[in-house]
């Protein structure tokens, strides 16, 4: 017995505002039933005593601790810039945008 009917698929299609042909409804009903059958098979597996895992690798935080450090001054940051205007980096105009 199918786990999802053609009428169920038609109802879902209406809710999603999808216009499906009769052939598409039949095809999707078969595909969705096959998916649900596989999920049921997996759900029926006895996992008693099996520890749940989401990732076999242990997650390690590789970020550095936050520390207050001095940063560049505006003049130091702009010192190596090819061009600066009014205390800011000056870059070429792109995409025909006007300033």
TrEMBL record:
GO terms for molecular function: asparaginyl-tRNA synthase (glutamine-hydrolyzing) activity; ATP binding; glutaminyl-tRNA synthase (glutamine-hydrolyzing) activity. The keyword Nucleotide-binding applies. InterPro entries: Asp/Glu-ADT_sf_sub_c, GatC. It catalyses: L-aspartyl-tRNA(Asn) + L-glutamine + ATP + H2O = L-asparaginyl-tRNA(Asn) + L-glutamate + ADP + phosphate + 2 H(+); L-glutamyl-tRNA(Gln) + L-glutamine + ATP + H2O = L-glutaminyl-tRNA(Gln) + L-glutamate + ADP + phosphate + H(+). Its EC number is 6.3.5.-. It is an enzyme of class 6 (ligase). It comes from the Bacteria. It holds the Pfam family GatC. The keyword Protein biosynthesis applies. This is Aspartyl/glutamyl-tRNA(Asn/Gln) amidotransferase subunit C. It comes from Mycolicibacter sinensis (strain JDM601) (Mycobacterium sinense). The lineage of its organism: Bacteria, Bacillati, Actinomycetota, Actinomycetes, Mycobacteriales.
């Amino acid at each position: 017995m199918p786990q999802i009917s053609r009428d169920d698929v038609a109802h879902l299609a209406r809710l999603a505002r999808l216009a499906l042909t009769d052939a598409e409804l039949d095809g999707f009903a078969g595909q969705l039933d096959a998916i649900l059958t596989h999920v049921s098979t997996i759900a029926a597996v006895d996992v008693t005593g099996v520890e749940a895992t989401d990732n076999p690798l242990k997650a390690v935080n590789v970020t550095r601790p936050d520390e207050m450090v001095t940063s560049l001054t505006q003049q130091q940051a702009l010192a190596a810039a090819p061009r600066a205007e009014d205390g800011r980096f000056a870059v070429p105009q792109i995409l025909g945008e006007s300033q």
